[in-house]
Write a structure and sequence with these properties.
489 residues; alpha/beta; two-stranded parallel ribbon; 15 helices; globular; LRR_dom_sf; F-box domain-containing protein
Length: 489
Amino acid sequence: MSINSFPNEILAHVFLLGSHPMAPTIQSQEFLMTISHVSSRWRQVALSSRYLWSSLAISFPIDAGELDRAQVWLQRSRPYPLRLTIDLCDPDWDFDEEAHSVRWFEAQAIMGVILPEAWRWQEIQMFADNWDPLYAFLHFTQKVALPILHRVDLRRCNPYFAGPDRKFAPLKSRVFLPLFGNQVLENLQDIVLEGVHVDWENLTALRGLTRLSIGYLARDVLPTLDEFQGLLSSSPLLESLVIMGWGPRLSKDPNVKETKLQQFRSKIRLPHLKVFELGVMIPSYAIDLLSLFYIPALEALTLDDITRYDTQTVVSPRRFDVIFDYFSGQAGTSSHPTSISTRLLTSLMITNLDCGQTSFRRFCQGLHQLRIMTVVNCSASVLEALTPGTIGFPCESLRRLSVEACDPNLLIQVVKARQMRDIEPMDVVFQHDPVIPSEIAWQFEQLNIKSLPSQGRDLPWRRFMTDDSDDLVDAILDERWDVAGASIQ
């Protein structure tokens, strides 16, 4: 059965599967542009199926051709809800505010294209190296109706602002605008603000969320403790929370900080939170932050050491012991009672961590329900802590272990030790960059350890033909017909 015999409805669905990934990309749009140039019938199906054009990516560099193509996409997709991705990041990581090729003028031009369709925005993502495009977005959306907006993802892709001594720049743009003019957005459920600050006092647009991610903020634009509590308390049904680096601003005066913290300990109640991801810059700050929460039903936890984004940090060994001691209820001080329960934890991911075997092992001893663990670029003590001892079996319910950037010989030792004591089999996946030695590969096979190459980086994208006028496409199709004499018309 040839694809040309498919009914138009089936053909359109095939096009949909190829052109609508999780988020709009240049590659997915190239696919849609290509299929609309194959034959007259395919073009007619593509253009008449307006929902195919409802995912739009606008990407660096910004020029007239890119904006013209975006306008065509928007016109073809009416009246369907829109998913927008605006990626203004320079592939060369240009963080220069003054010299970057995408600044206020270019951002204003983009907003001029997409704002008339704001009533159709369902999801919108904007990524930028510099502040101008994000500030323009916040500025031009102050008085825009957004009746169906469900998800917003705004990222200033410069995590180095999370360094303890960094301040927001450029200083002239250190303005706190209310998100979407502080209007009520009934359908908004999911917000990501990375390196993007807003007016933390006026939070109407941030109420009723189920997913919230904030991170990589400079310390001088953080919310106060009161504002932070207001932000989270306004979303009592929150299910997923990501905090990378900093949460609320705490006083540098130890006495003032401790007095204030005492007022807020365990006061931020998140009874429905299932997923929590924490990027730690300073462990002592992370403990203060954790002490603010009451989380009784956590199921998935991710811990990441993000000091790699602070060039001034002097790395100290086992700096994460205090984090695991806190979760184990062994913080060593009554001022930090553990208020985050890990008894229901089924998934744990730890990245770039250096901790002592004793602390991590004590933590794992209490994870009786843990089924999935992912370990990426951590110290050897993390894997060693999973070895069964004469007393206790860390993570006895563990059924899947994924490991990347570790000593394969150590992994073999741990898996052997657990297999000797385990009742049920455990799936083990080892991700690696170089080709592993044949001896290691043989032992992996004997222990049923799956060896996979590390996930590769995205290939550099290339710009594709943006001229999609009917005259040009007709000429292309006529040429193909003359050359091939094909029957796909």
